[in-house]
Every structure is written in C-alpha cells, then in structure tokens.
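So, read this over?
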Amino acid sequence: MEAFRGHVAKRIFGVILVLSAGFLGAALLGLSVGSTGTDFRVVLRSVAGMSSPNATLQTIIWELRWPRVLLAGQVGSALAVGGLVFQALLRNPLADPYVLGISGGAAVGAILGILAGLSQFPGVSAAAFLGSMGALLVVLSMVSGKGILRRDALLLSGVMVNAFCSAAILFFVSKTQDSRLHDILFWLMGDLARGDLAHAGRLAIILAPCLLAVFALSRPMNLLLMGTEAAEGLGVDVRRVSAWLLGVTAVMVSAAVCRSGLLGFVGLTVPHLLRLVLGSDHRVLVPACALGGGAYLVACDALARWIPEQGEMPVGVVTALIGAPLFIMLLRRTIR
C-alpha cells in the first residue's frame, strides 16, 4: 500500500512539474502578445530579472498583460476542474459547467445588471453570481424529494434551466438597441480584457479553497465512477460527498464566469484530453486540470489578441473554434 501511495505521489509530482512548465510557457506567450507587440526574448529576460525594459514596456507587461494572464489562468483552472467534477458526478462525458444551468443563470444575471446600468464590478459581477446561484437552487429544487444523486434528474433539470436561460438571453438581446447591446454581446462571447490585479486577487481567494476541497475529495470521486451502490459499499457517504462537490464546484464556476463571461468548451475539452493521456485517477486529474485548463485559456487569450490585425476578438470565439473540432476528434477516438 505504501509503495502504491508513493507511486501516485510521484505521478502527481511529475504531472504538476510538466504542466507547470506548460503554464509558464503559455504565460510568457500571453505577456508577449498584444496590439503594441513585445519581443518574446525581452519578456523572458524581464521575467528572469536579467534586464529591465523601458518604462512603457514595463507598464504594458506588468500592469496590463500580467493581470490578464493571471485572470485567464484562474478562470481556465476553475472551468476545467468544474467540468471534471460534473463528469464524475453525472458519469456523463458531455457534462460541463453549463450542464446544470450555472453559466446560463450567470449570463441572465449579468445582462440584467448591464441593463440596470450597474458598474462592471461589483454590480454586474454580483448580479451574475446571484443569477448562477439562483439557477443552481432552481435545479436542486426540481429534484428535491428524488435525491440529489439521481444524475438523470439532475441532468434533465439542468438542460431545462439552460434552455429557459437561453430564451431569456435572446429576449433581452432582441429588446436592447442602445450601446448596452455591445456590452451584453461581448460578455456573452467571453471577455478577459477588464481584469486587474485586484480582480485576480479576489478570485484567487475564492478559488484556492475550492480547488483544495475538490482535490481532497478526489479519492471518493474515483469510487463514484464505479457506481453509487459500489461506492457506498466501499464506505463512501455518497450523498454527502456529492453535495459537497456540487456546492463547491458551483461556487468556483460561478465566481469564474462572473469575471470572464461565457467561455465554452474549456470544461468539456480539457478534462477529456487529460483523461486520455493520464487515465481516470482524479488524484492526478484534479491538479492536471487546474494547470492544464489555466494554460489552455491563457494560450487562447493570447491567440485572441494575436489573430486580428487590429484590436482583438472575444476569447470565447477562440475557445469554441479550437475546442469544438478538438472535442469531436477526441470523441471519435474514444468511441473507437
């Protein structure tokens, strides 16, 4: 048993080491790309403390791009780990943070906040958070009395809430004709441009304990894959573990979506890809998704700034353009 635990610990350490290097590479890419442009080597020497760029580049790198990289990394981690948890809870490979209506509820809340003229923070962010938690409460109330472990009931309830939220979003968009329509559409397509160090710090305070809690429950998540009865037979309090995972993940994903808008396929694609490479042990997958999801979104955000000749495109467009074909390819490989 000790030898087995030592083997798992070595795997976790190796995965963290490799993916940390990947995240660092994505972060350097994110610091190097932008409308003003910056040489990758200049950024690398500045980060390593080997040289100091001029004051303008110093401001661009550390006051504009660094907070954005931090925000993208945290949001990517939250969405990827959230997708991993929902796929384990529902034992459904198509589950992700959108499946329970959390993201749809956040979108409705954010749109109402924008239409009410609230500030981006805390007004719109708070409205988005309340919307996502409201959607979660509606889903849970729809399956109350049937047990929160009825994954089919949870899945169908989430789909219904998502459909209602989508209709509400279209209604509000169709009725908005002024400048607020631009803010609504940009938020719906994902927006990381408004991040700063204060926002990244607040998000880290919320996400850090949530990620640690999910990692602490990674062994019960492994047993849940065997089925509810088998997990209970092995001593897992399935109801309690599921409730904790659901609550912690809802808070984590809600906090991330509030800051970034809707970003599709991160929670769907990253866990799939890492599961194919690393296997199904959640003790390894949780830290892998945290680092891999962060690196993926930082790289997508860099592409969103690099592809257009002028300005930038919403990062949600890039995650969808990359994630959709990648997910189809992974799905075909899994089926074979």
